[in-house]
Amino acid sequence: MRFTRAIVRPPAATFAAGITKSGLGPPDMALALEQHGAYCRTLERLGLSLVWLAPDPEFPDSTFVEDAAIVTTGGAILTRPGAASRAGEVASLGAALGRWFPELDEITSPGTVDGGDVCEAGDHFFIGRSARTNAEGATQLAAWLARRGFGSSVIDIRRMAGLLHLKTGLSWLGGRRLLAASEIAGHEALRGWEVVRVPDGEEYAANCVRVNDTLLIAQGFLATEPRLRGLGFDVAPLEMSEYRKMDGGLSCLSVRW
Ligand code: CIR
Description:
Layout: E1 5-8, H1 29-45, E2 49-52, E3 69-72, E4 75-78, H2 90-97, E5 105-106, E6 118-121, E7 124-129, H3 135-147, E8 151-156, E9 170-174, E10 177-180, H4 182-185, E11 194-197, E12 209-211, E13 214-218, H5 224-230, E14 234-238, H6 241-244, E15 255-256
Parallel strand pairs: 1-2, 4-5, 7-8, 10-11, 13-14
Antiparallel strand pairs: 1-15, 3-4, 6-7, 9-10, 12-13
The structure holds citrulline.
């Protein structure tokens, strides 16, 4: 779909208290804000109108807005994040999305889904079964998608080391083409898709976002970037170092539609 809007939320002062297993040390707050600003300016340059949510210190991970809501061409659904500390993030996404999606659905208990586990690929969605998205959540989401004419398949990432969410290792590039970290690239759910592999050692670059005709990618991945340019993409590299420290990728910083 062509995007015209995105929800974003700058990190709050409590950002460093969020969940992380990266072992990369605490984020530098000033740098995080600077990187967030560059990310938002890039979305605006690509023609998107931004819907800004205020930073919320009660929820250190709330800058990762993507995890709390899923927006499709067939409507939007609020998730039920798998980490208890993130459950309260959904309300503000609901308030913001309600203006555009009056019939907002939601994942209900005992289902849990993190938006980071949901990879849209046109009329098909890949759903990650992860430590955050449980079987019940995946089933609820698949049924919701099916009612809107979308297909889906589940990829269990629980044994794939280093992947917090499905989209940590998988992105849609448009058409039938996906970008994948090698752990996911051979998965049977991807059969019939053209899978572009992220070079080993650059797994973090597997999380990218196609915004209309441009691919937003993490900066500094010197083998991945030319590979994507070689496919004909206009590429916009963005420095993500402070979000990476908190296990976040490019896609998590916005909800796009
Ligand atoms: C978390 O562990 O929930 C956050 N620190 C990072 C969430 C990143 N979200 C994403 O990849 N969609």
